[in-house]
Specification:
- Strand 6 and strand 7 form a beta hairpin.
- This protein is an alpha+beta fold.
- Helices cover 38% and strands 22% of the residues.
- It is built from eleven helices and 17 strands.
- One of its GO terms (biological process) is cell septum assembly.
- It is found in: Cell inner membrane.
- It is a single-pass type I membrane protein.
Length: 416
């Protein structure tokens, strides 16, 4: 009898020790993860890619809404975008000239004790910029309003804030203007044979007008009214230097059109992170060999990437703490594991690619003896994977409803 009691006590001690070891193991992994240690949909404060985080936490089955609710969300978001666009007179992808293009007037600063709402239409008008008023007795080579009607493939009026400059006499472009320190801009010129092309400072190439497009939406968010007004002032100085007449897109109308798209971009811009972790360690040499056999290559940014047939990166592999992989470190140190990243907005055909992504994760897990877990260090179940897969498909469906194809050049511009 005593032997049985002692044996039972020993078994209980072993079980308690194993539970303690498992708890310590999970605690260590949580401390090592460089990603947010929360669920992406349970807590709205978790950083998304838009917030500057490296990766968005993966979702579990409790956080992904049921299929009916997801479809309802997709439809309502699409209706919201379409309604807003209709209200602002967006027709066939272009904003009507009467609403969208006018001489922009600079916003004055509000009194110190009054907090003027940002991007509000209640900005006080000041005198027009010098080049928005035609010079008496002179005729520009082009009509700026006719220029605003030209369908130019380099711009998208939903997120490119446009300025039109018609010159009074032909000019060469001697140097590229400095028009923005934060956002990208494109400069398109109209040559003397009425052809529009990317403007470059090439000798003996004369222009009769320019269109400048400032990208107002990116992963940094939507530019403010003040930032767009500042760009207008810079465009005005460029028009003065080139001796031309300036026409600016109306800021308030532009922002009314851009906000719904910016909201959608913030919502879909997420990266799925799945972690492969070891209960002990895996050597860097073994890790590198395994991932390279799957087709990954070590990039200059310290992450492994898997490219598609066109050479475009599809999936990434990074360390658990976001420190870079290097050839030297991989050859000389061990790792607790790594994270595989799936960037929803940059990967075309999300359903097919996610299946490929998970197939690679399972193979690497098997080859290296690693556990597949999410940010909460919970093992991944088949049901969990189905829900995440559906989540990816739903977010990409939202993008396609507004003609924003995942992985396209347009997506690369917006999510960069």
């Amino acid at each position: 009898m005593i032997v049985l009691v002692i044996g039972a006590a020993i078994i209980l001690l072993v079980l308690a020790y194993n539970i303690y070891q498992e708890s310590q193991y999970r605690k260590q992994l949580r401390e090592q993860f460089g990603h947010a240690n929360k669920d992406a949909l349970l807590d709205s404060q978790v950083n998304s890619v838009r917030d500057g985080a490296e990766a968005q936490s993966v979702m579990n089955t409790k956080t992904v809404p049921p299929a009916e609710e997801a479809n309802k969300t997709d439809n309502s978001s699409a209706e919201q975008f379409e309604t807003s666009a209709t209200d602002e007179k967006v027709i066939d992808g272009t904003v009507s000239e009467e609403e969208n293009v006018s001489a922009v007037q600079a916003a004055s600063s509000a009194p110190d004790n009054v907090a003027a709402p940002e991007n509000s239409a209640a900005h006080i008008d000041m005198a027009p910029l010098s080049r928005t008023v035609p010079v008496k007795g002179r005729k520009a080579l082009l009509d700026v309003r006719d220029m605003s009607k030209q369908p130019l493939p380099w711009f998208d009026v939903r997120f490119d804030y446009l300025a039109y400059i018609a010159l009074y006499q032909p000019k060469e472009l001697h140097a590229m203007p400095r028009l923005s320190s934060r956002s990208r801009f494109r400069l398109v010129g109209c040559t003397m044979d009425d052809r529009y092309q990317i403007a470059e400072p090439i000798p003996s190439v004369y222009y009769q007008g320019f269109v400048v497009g400032l990208q107002a939406i990116s992963r940094s968010g939507l530019l403010t009214h003040e930032e767009l007004a500042h760009f207008g002032e810079q465009a005005n100085r460029f028009a003065e230097q080139m001796d031309g007449q300036l026409l600016l897109t109306d800021i308030n109308t532009f922002l009314d059109v851009a906000r719904p798209l910016d909201d959608l971009c913030a919502r879909v811009d997420q990266t799925i992170a799945i972690h492969l972790v070891s209960r002990t360690n895996v050597s860097g040499t073994e890790l590198r060999s395994a991932v390279e056999k799957q087709g990954f290559e070590l990039g200059h940014d310290g992450a492994f990437f898997y490219a598609d047939t066109d050479g475009e990166p599809l999936f990434n592999i990074v360390t658990l703490d976001n420190t870079p992989f290097t050839s030297t470190l991989l050859a000389n140190q061990n790792y607790r594991g790594f994270s595989m990243l799936f960037d929803i907005v940059h990967i075309p055909n999300g359903e097919k690619c996610f299946d490929q992504f998970m197939d690679m994760a399972v193979k690497l897990s098997s080859q290296l003896g690693l556990d597949l877990v999410n940010d909460k260090v919970e093992e991944l179940s088949t049901e969990w994977l189905r829900e995440v897969r559906r989540y990816v498909v739903d977010r990409q469906k939202e993008m396609k409803q507004v003609d924003l194809e995942p992985g396209s050049e347009l997506a690369k511009r917006l999510f960069s």
